[in-house]
Structures are given as structure tokens and as C-alpha cells.
Write a structure and sequence with these properties.
The complex is a heterodimer of chains A (74) and B (246).
Chain A lengths: L8 H4 L4 H5 L1 E6 L2 E7 L5 E6 L17 E2 L7
Antiparallel strand pairs in A: 1-2, 2-3, 3-4
Chain B lengths: L1 H29 L13 E11 L10 E3 H13 L5 E11 L1 H12 L5 E9 L3 H7 L2 E4 L4 E4 L15 H18 L4 H9 L10 E4 H6 L5 E2 L2 H23 L1
The chains are: A alpha+beta (74), B alpha/beta (246).
InterPro entries (chain A): YlzJ
Protein name (chain B): ATP-dependent protease ClpP protease subunit
Pfam family, one (chain B): CLP_protease
Chain lengths: 74, 246
């Protein structure tokens, strides 16, 4: 099927709300992180949203690292 | 070499042990395990504008986006924090929501601290106002910026837009760019409406050196030039503040 339209793809093929719930923003040690919940009920860091370049030098805040939901401060 | 590594790993183990002790101590003293350990504040912060600039409609998670509800509070925090003296903005964006993009651009333009932007890869569409909103802008030689008219997808405020409405919206972008860069309105509009550069579309894809030639961007350069410029601007800013105190 070819769709000839100006409409953005996400408007035509809408994603389910469950897809959106997979990722969320949490603060860990005061650093905003975009995380994804894994099967083991841990949070896996998807993106570090901090503007402080120092936060990118520490491996514990880098993408792919797991953090426990219980350690989330806010 | 191996011995050094062994020593390093041993030290790490020791650190690991003290960490565990610390955790136990924290539970005893504060009733919780983690106390925010703030890393020393850097005096230059870095804001990355990547992927799509997301506006009023949330894009599915597989899209890489820059959300304005994340960026705007960060800019406010940077303005508020007295330890932060300057901001480096790194752009590699395909563009996105016009109003969200303009919101970020206006926030950056009204920031009292020195700002320097670097366009890497691409600063297309609504990325153009963001790039020029900073006090000084750089573009790497290989980066490109696509200048094109506002697209008509009818997604602006949820009702069908009139041509005049879109024209006014475009005027906002043109005015912002011409106000914050050295490009003239005529030249910017000429690039915006030129034919034959993009496949089945009007507009121009401006490459590094050309962006500087047209006056859109201040200089060709990468991270070292940008940091040098930012430090210069911070010095100037400090001197001016000192004068005001006297």
C-alpha cells in the first residue's frame, strides 16, 4: 500500500498508549534521565537529559545502565 | 601494565566495599539508601538539540526527539544557577514543530548568559532559528541547513488554517532569523523560495561555508572554536558585570 499524503505518519498509524508508557523521565541523583522499564522491573537508561557535561563522564549515568526503581528520588 | 591494572581493579574493589558501608550508614542515619551525590557544577553547560523538535503532539517512542517541556525548564535552571556562566548549544536536528522550535529559540535569545551554538550534521527547518538565536553561531564545514517555507500539514492549532495564517507564521520565523543573524530578509526569502535545489520542493540546502557567506551563521568551526568563543564571551560578560558593580 502506498499512501500519497502530506499527513505525518504518526497521525495515520497511531501508536498505542502502551508504547508511550514504556519510556519515562526520572530524576536520579538530581539528573534527569529518560528510562525504559525492563522485564526485571529495573530502569534502563535510554538518554541522559542533563545539560551538565560532567554527568556524561560518569558511566553510571550513561545509556544502557540499569538503575533500581527504588533508588529514584523524584 | 598488568600489574597496574590489577592494582587499579583492587582499588576499585576497595571503593566498592566502602560504598556498601556507606549505604548501610545512610540507611541508619537518614533512613534511605541514596543521597544525591552532586558532581561539581561545570561553569559551561551544554544543551543538545537532536532528532525532531517535538511540539504539542507526542511522537512515538521510536522517534528521537527533543521535547520543549524538557528543554525550557533546563534553560530556566541555567539562567537561575549562578555557577553556570555560559551555554553551548549543539544542534543536529531535522526540524519539527514550529511553535516549539520558536519557543526554544526565544528562550535562548533572552538568556542573560553568553550562548554559542554549533551546527553539526544538520540544523534544518526550525533548527535555523535555534542556531541563530545564540550570541555567536558556528557551523562545521560538512553541516547543512535546509531553509524552506512552513509546511502545510494543518497541525498548527487543530483547525484548518487559512493561507494568511500560515503566511503570518512564516513571517514570525523570517523576522526572528533576520533579527538574530546578519542575513537580509530578501536573501533569506530568496533561499526559502528558490526552485530546483530540493526534489519536488522549494527551498535551499545551505552547506557550512555558504551559511557563513549568506550571513546566516557567524563562523565555520567546531567544538574548540566554539568553546574558545564562549570563554571570551564569558570574560566580556564578567567585565561588564564588574563595571556595573562599581
Amino acid at each position: 500500500m502506498i499512501l500519497y499524503t502530506l499527513m505525518p505518519q504518526e497521525l495515520i498509524f497511531q501508536t498505542t498508549s502502551a508504547e508511550y508508557a514504556k519510556q519515562q523521565l526520572v530524576y536520579y541523583d538530581g539528573i534527569p534521565l529518560l528510562v525504559r522499564e525492563t522485564e526485571a522491573k529495573e530502569y534502563e537508561i535510554v538518554r541522559n537529559l542533563s545539560t551538565n557535561p560532567q554527568h556524561f563522564l560518569q558511566s553510571k549515568y550513561s545509556p544502557g545502565m540499569r538503575i533500581l526503581p527504588t533508588t529514584i528520588t523524584s | 601494565m598488568n600489574k597496574e591494572r590489577y592494582i587499579a581493579s583492587e582499588q576499585e574493589e576497595q571503593q566498592e566495599e566502602t560504598k556498601k558501608e556507606n549505604v548501610a550508614e545512610m540507611i541508619q542515619q537518614l533512613g534511605q539508601t541514596n543521597v544525591p551525590q552532586m558532581t561539581p557544577d561545570s561553569n559551561i553547560h551544554c544543551l543538545t538539540i537532536v532528532g525532531q523538535i517535538e511540539g504539542h503532539i507526542q511522537l512515538p517512542p521510536q522517534n528521537k526527539t527533543t521535547k520543549y517541556e524538557h528543554v525550557i525548564p533546563q534553560i530556566v535552571a541555567i539562567e537561575q544557577n549562578s555557577n553556570i556562566e555560559g551555554l553551548l548549544v549543539l544542534l543536529n536536528t531535522v526540524g519539527g514543530d514550529v511553535e516549539a522550535g520558536l519557543a526554544i529559540a526565544e528562550m535562548l535569545a533572552s538568556l542573560s548568559k553568553p550562548t554559542v551554538s554549533v551546527v553539526l550534521g544538520g540544523g534544518h527547518s526550525i533548527g535555523v532559528p535555534i542556531a541563530v538565536s545564540c550570541d555567536y553561531s558556528f557551523i562545521v564545514e560538512t553541516a547543512t541547513m535546509t531553509i524552506h517555507p512552513i509546511r502545510l500539514t494543518g497541525l498548527v492549532i487543530g483547525v484548518p488554517q487559512t493561507f494568511e495564517y500560515l503566511d503570518k507564521m512564516q513571517e514570525r520565523v523570517v523576522r526572528f532569523v533576520t533579527k538574530h543573524s546578519n542575513i537580509s530578509e530578501e536573501k533569506f526569502k530568496e533561499l526559502m523560495f528558490s526552485k530546483g535545489n530540493l526534489t519536488r520542493d522549494i527551498g535551499t540546502n545551505v552547506v557550512g561555508l555558504d551559511a557563513v557567506k549568506y550571513g546566516l551563521i557567524d563562523e565555520v568551526g567546531g567544538v574548540s572554536q566554539a568553546m574558545k568563543k564562549l570563554r571570551e564571551l564569558i570574560e566580556v560578560n564578567k567585565r561588564e558585570e564588574g563595571k556595573m558593580l562599581q
